[in-house]
């Protein structure tokens, strides 16, 4: 680059810096307006609390979840454990809980599945879908009724996980803010610079949160962790600018010092931020769309950190300049010249040691234990939700439920699938229309003749024949009547619901007792049908004896699909549940991890090539940083502690960039 070009660039930066400094009052006014706007707009963002929302659209789990949302009703449920209670007290509570408004059913008996160690476990199903706010109202009513007991509740209702993380992040932010203020006071050369740095960060934070709504919808993880990561970056950029200002201010007056330091800091900090942004850009290439969501949120936070440092902070330095001059103090940071001497003395040893450690780190990090759900992650301090889950797991066998989705219309195949699955030790129980008892030992999907239905429903045989003939006519099944109406069979659930429709229409007249019996059966059957039968698909529930997170569980999910596909060779079958979600995360991560690693290295190296105008230095820096990443993620292998797979992607991307 020629001297003339350098002078032109420098001149432009100085002119730009002069405008920013001299127009600081206008900038303050605009900033205050934007801060007030952001204080309100930060609540406009739609936060997605379900990680499966970000699965690739072509993944089987995503397709299964979409089908369930479209075709089935999933009622809200809760596991409620009452501790320190006698069997008699526990049994007496069951009908009382059923009477609470919104409670559809309570599953409880005196077996060890529901009573153990002086504790009772009630499996409550509410009368509303799991997305209905009324479920939360009913759950609160249950909690209030049982408030005098030692109570533990485990449920997926509401956004408990999101609310917990938001609360914990708020607490962490307070701790981090205190630590940062103390560190700034300790490392500062003047107390007046501390409020400048803090205000710069606050502006960046609020403006970033206030513009999240422009992205439409963001994940609860992005909404929570962005603030913490932005704090580190904002303070870093502001400190670089502040240190440059103090250097210039030793020789120049306040205004000139701010202008010159800003003109020099913009290219320096801008180049530094590009490597961080470059590392995050790699996450945009992930198939698991949570990666792009987090990357965009973090990149936006970096841009606002830069804007706050370049646009707002110069005015703050002008405003607090006199205070900065008056509050200078001696440095509290001790001089450590021995570190430099040690580095120089060991310059031939340390590189060799680092290479050896990096190789070991690579090997250990390759075996890093990743967690794809929350069950394997242990927190130093458990929150209320985790305590409740742990208490229930300690006293009762945890349930791992999967939903198998198959094309509707063939109860015989569904029955055969459930029978075959029931033979495996990995399966605790199954539930579908073909094995739910309705009345007098008959299952919901059992096919009955007119005589069998007449005996079951208390109808005259002739009336039952008329109803069967009407059913056949409505469903265009005349061919089946050609032989003999007496042998024509219809699934119990279909015939019961058909008769109920005929009674409601006034076509069929029944006695009061018969009508009441039909109405009671109709409630049960409609509930079962809403949960287990859709327009195009039927759903069967499979309860496993395996944990949610394990290779054995993931392998058995493949086995379940293999069995189902045997009965539906030319049609699509799907499987959904926490285990399949985690299995899908694992398969996505296997690809995304390689993509993020390669792209982050290439992008950061490209930025460094332009920054250093050298081919050797970027390669050296990349090798050193990559070695540090390997060393960093060798510790989970050594300690045996699981690391959440998203944590690995975020940390490795930022570490490569920063």
Description:
The structure is a single chain. The protein folds into 3 domains: 219 residues, Multidrug efflux transporter AcrB transmembrane domain (Multidrug efflux transporter AcrB transmembrane fold), CATH 1.20.1640; 88 residues, Alpha-Beta Plaits (2-Layer Sandwich), CATH 3.30.70; 176 residues, no CATH class. 62% of the residues lie in helices and 12% in strands. β4 and β5 form a beta hairpin. α2 packs across α10, α8 packs antiparallel against α9 and α20 runs parallel beside α23. The longest helix is centred in the middle third of the chain and has 37 residues. The mean pLDDT is 85.
The end-to-end span amounts to 27 Å
Number of domains: 3
Which parts are unreliable, with pLDDT below 50 for 5 consecutive residues or more? none
State the CATH superfamily name of the largest domain.
Answer: Multidrug efflux transporter AcrB transmembrane domain
Largest sheet: 5 strands, antiparallel
Rough shape?
elongated
CATH topology label of the largest domain: Multidrug efflux transporter AcrB transmembrane fold
Helix content: 55-70%
Instruction: Please state the average pLDDT score.
Output: 85
CATH architecture of the largest domain: Up-down Bundle
């Amino acid at each position: 680059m020629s001297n003339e070009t350098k002078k032109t660039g420098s001149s432009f930066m100085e002119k730009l810096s002069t405008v920013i400094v001299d127009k600081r009052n206008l900038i303050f006014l605009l900033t205050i307006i934007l801060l007030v706007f952001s204080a309100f707009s930060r609540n406009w963002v739609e936060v997605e609390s379900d990680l499966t929302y970000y699965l690739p659209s072509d993944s089987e789990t995503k397709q299964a979840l979409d089908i369930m949302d479209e075709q089935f009703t999933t009622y809200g449920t809760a596991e409620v454990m009452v501790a320190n209670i006698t069997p008699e007290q526990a049994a007496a509570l069951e009908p009382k809980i059923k009477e609470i408004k919104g409670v559809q059913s309570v599953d409880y008996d005196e077996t060890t599945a529901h009573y153990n160690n002086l504790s009772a476990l009630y499996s409550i199903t509410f009368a509303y879908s799991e997305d209905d706010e009324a479920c939360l109202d009913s759950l609160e009513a249950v909690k209030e009724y049982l408030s005098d007991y030692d109570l533990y509740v485990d449920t997926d209702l509401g956004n408990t996980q999101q609310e917990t993380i938001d609360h914990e992040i708020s607490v962490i932010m307070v701790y981090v803010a205190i630590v940062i203020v103390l560190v700034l006071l300790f490392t500062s050369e003047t107390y007046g610079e501390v409020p400048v740095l803090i205000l710069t960060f606050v502006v960046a934070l609020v403006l970033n949160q206030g513009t999240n709504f422009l992205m439409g919808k963001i994940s609860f993880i992005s909404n929570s962790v962005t603030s913490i990561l932005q704090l580190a970056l904002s303070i870093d950029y502001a400190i670089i600018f502040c240190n440059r200002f103090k250097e210039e201010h030793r020789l120049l007056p306040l205004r000139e010092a701010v202008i010159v330091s800003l003109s020099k800091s913009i290219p320096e900090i801008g180049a530094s931020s590009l490597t961080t942004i470059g590392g995050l850009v790699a996450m945009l290439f992930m198939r698991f769309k949570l990666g792009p969501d987090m990357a965009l949120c973090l990149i936006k936070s970096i841009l606002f950190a830069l804007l706050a440092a370049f646009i707002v902070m110069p005015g703050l330095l002008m405003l607090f300049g006199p205070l900065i001059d008056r509050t200078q103090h001696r440095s509290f940071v001790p001089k450590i010249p021995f570190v430099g001497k040690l580095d120089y003395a060991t310059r031939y040893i340390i590189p060799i040691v680092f290479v050896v450690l990096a190789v070991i780190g690579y090997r250990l990090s390759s075996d890093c234990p990743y967690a794809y759900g929350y069950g394997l992650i242990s927190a130093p301090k458990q929150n209320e939700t985790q305590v409740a889950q742990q208490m229930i797991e300690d006293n009762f066998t945890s349930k791992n439920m999967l939903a198998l989705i198959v094309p509707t219309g063939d109860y015989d195949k569904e029955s055969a699938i459930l029978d075959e699955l029931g033979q495996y030790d990995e399966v605790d129980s199954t539930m579908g229309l073909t094995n739910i008892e309705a009345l007098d030992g008959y299952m919901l999907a059992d096919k009955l003749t007119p005589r069998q239905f007449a005996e079951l429903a208390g109808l005259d045989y002739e009336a039952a024949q008329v109803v069967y003939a009407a059913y056949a006519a409505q469903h265009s099944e005349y061919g089946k009547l050609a032989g003999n109406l007496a042998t024509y069979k219809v699934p119990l659930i279909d015939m019961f619901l058909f008769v109920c429709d005929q009674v409601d229409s006034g076509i069929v007249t029944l006695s009061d007792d018969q009508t009441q019996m039909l109405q009671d059966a109709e409630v049960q059957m409609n509930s079962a049908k809403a949960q287990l039968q859709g327009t195009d698909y039927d759903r069967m529930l499979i309860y496993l004896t395996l944990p949610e997170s394990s290779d054995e569980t993931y392998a058995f999910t493949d086995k379940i699909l293999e069995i189902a596909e045997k009965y539906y060779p030319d049609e699509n079958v799907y499987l959904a549940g926490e285990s399949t979600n985690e299995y899908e995360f694992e398969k996505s991560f296997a690809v995304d991890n390689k993509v993020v690693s390669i792209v982050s290295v290439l992008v950061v190296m490209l930025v460094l090539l332009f920054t250093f105008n050298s081919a050797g230095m970027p390669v050296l820096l990349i090798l050193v940083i990559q070695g540090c990443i390997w060393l960093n993620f060798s510790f989970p292998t050594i300690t045996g502690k699981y690391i959440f797979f998203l944590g690995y992607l975020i940390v490795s991307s930022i570490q490569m960039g920063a």
